[in-house]
From TrEMBL:
<feature type="domain" description="SF4 helicase">
    <location>
        <begin position="194"/>
        <end position="469"/>
    </location>
</feature>
<comment type="similarity">
    <text>Belongs to the helicase family. DnaB subfamily.</text>
</comment>
<dbReference type="GO" id="GO:0005524">
    <property type="term" value="F:ATP binding"/>
</dbReference>
<comment type="function">
    <text>The main replicative DNA helicase, it participates in initiation and elongation during chromosome replication. Travels ahead of the DNA replisome, separating dsDNA into templates for DNA synthesis. A processive ATP-dependent 5'-3' DNA helicase it has DNA-dependent ATPase activity.</text>
</comment>
<keyword id="KW-0238">DNA-binding</keyword>
<feature type="region of interest" description="Disordered">
    <location>
        <begin position="485"/>
        <end position="517"/>
    </location>
</feature>
<keyword id="KW-0639">Primosome</keyword>
<dbReference type="InterPro" id="IPR003593">
    <property type="entry name" value="AAA+_ATPase"/>
</dbReference>
<dbReference type="InterPro" id="IPR036185">
    <property type="entry name" value="DNA_heli_DnaB-like_N_sf"/>
</dbReference>
<dbReference type="InterPro" id="IPR016136">
    <property type="entry name" value="DNA_helicase_N/primase_C"/>
</dbReference>
<dbReference type="GO" id="GO:0006269">
    <property type="term" value="P:DNA replication, synthesis of primer"/>
</dbReference>
<dbReference type="InterPro" id="IPR027417">
    <property type="entry name" value="P-loop_NTPase"/>
</dbReference>
<dbReference type="GO" id="GO:0003677">
    <property type="term" value="F:DNA binding"/>
</dbReference>
<protein>
    <recommendedName>
        <fullName>Replicative DNA helicase</fullName>
        <ecNumber>5.6.2.3</ecNumber>
    </recommendedName>
</protein>
<dbReference type="InterPro" id="IPR007693">
    <property type="entry name" value="DNA_helicase_DnaB-like_N"/>
</dbReference>
<dbReference type="GO" id="GO:0005829">
    <property type="term" value="C:cytosol"/>
</dbReference>
<keyword id="KW-0347">Helicase</keyword>
Amino acid sequence: MENLKPQTSFKKRATPVINLEKGKIPPQAVELEEVVLGAMMIDKKGVDEVIDILSTDAFYKVAHQHIFDAINTLFHESQPIDLLTVSQQLKKAQQLEVAGGEFYLVQLTQKVSSSAHIEFHARIILQKYIQRSLIKISSEIIEDSYDETTDVFDLLDQAESKLYDVTQGNLKRSSETASDLVRQAKERIQDIANKEGLSGIPSGFTEVDKLTSGWQPSDLIIIAARPGMGKTALTLSMARNMAVEHNVPVAFFSCEMSSVQLITRLISSETGLSSEKLRTGNLEQHEWEQLNVKVKGLEKAPLFIDDTPSLSIFDLRAKARRLASQHGIKIIMIDYLQLMTAGGTKGGGNREQEISTISRNLKALAKELNVPVIALSQLSRAVETRGGSKRPLLSDLRESGAIEQDADIVSFIYRPEYYKIDEWDDDEHSPTEGQGEFIVAKHRNGGLDEIRLRFVGHLGKFENLESFPFTNEIASSMNAAANDDTFKPDNFPSAQDAFGTPFDTPGLGGGDDEVPF
């Protein structure tokens, strides 16, 4: 008999095309909404478990939104929550009929007998809300993408911003009540008291932190100076203080130097070995040991460096959001603002408008991520042509007055030594060698000041001026004594009077030992 091969049946596969217009309804869980609201009205424990999980917008049914609003109001006013109080609150807000009336409230309480599993149910409601939000965002992106007048980089930025809001679970709300804000402010004041007056991120410079109470969340801080003043040195010193000493995650975006150059400067600052030695690798055995031991803290520091050249504001915001999501960064530093680009393809704008766009977006980024953003900026040559002390002014900000308007703090770095000025213009005429000023010229939420810092040039770092409180005084006295022909030995304290027994202090007992300051 002839073997017959079985016939293979071919079925037409369904086309995997999702029709958005036919038979689609938004994701929802109305029955669970009824159960959750009913449980909240019969059991206070249920309110405590889900009041921080859900928001008014999370409910699909409009009537349920009004009922949740009433429960939320009673909760924040520390009022009892039950069938009667919710009904009265809805009447007071003139929303009872919109919410379905008293009979509907009764029906909700009859659907459940306890608040068991209420948190699980609330999570499902939240998931449906996130799905609806994603559908809405996707529809907006599709519509905007068909618009030829829309800048593609702006479109990408907006899309990522909206999706970031969803992933963080904090979709934007239209407003917050005064009672909520007062409660948050009181909690923050208590936290500040516990941190001994520092409400922000400490810079590591004592006087700067006293003036600012630390760098504050959502603030845009501009640090401006002429080339060679030490802008990068100051921000690297702050980044090191935050990441190494306080374990604060720092994002450092460098448009000027490579990441290896920056970390080499940090190693020099940390180990006390000059940058020249590190570049040449000409180290003694004990210096190699010093290098290996002292960089251990830097190796573990939560410091993230990005050296993308010609970084656009769009790329910066995208990278910053990812760092915030993945590593929880608490502060962003940018070196420096004039090397960034606004991105996009919009023509017709000059450089001043581009800088305005960048500064405006940096402020928006600080508010969006709720972290301080420190941006370095160049000053115009007007400083060089001006006579006198050559201290920078707000009018010296290069290319845009918008920087001054957008920033919460505008500060300058000033080192008179750079201009061959040997003495400060104060009453004491103290020497300027190895010193610089951190000038706070604009402070939206505080005072202004001129704070002196110590500049260690060969290590490329700034320190608190009081780090070596007596070195300059002793050195000045000894130099004056050596150069003054009329100097009388009886008027100058001996080493034993000044420091105690010479044999108790290494380096002062004679010979070629160095003074250990």
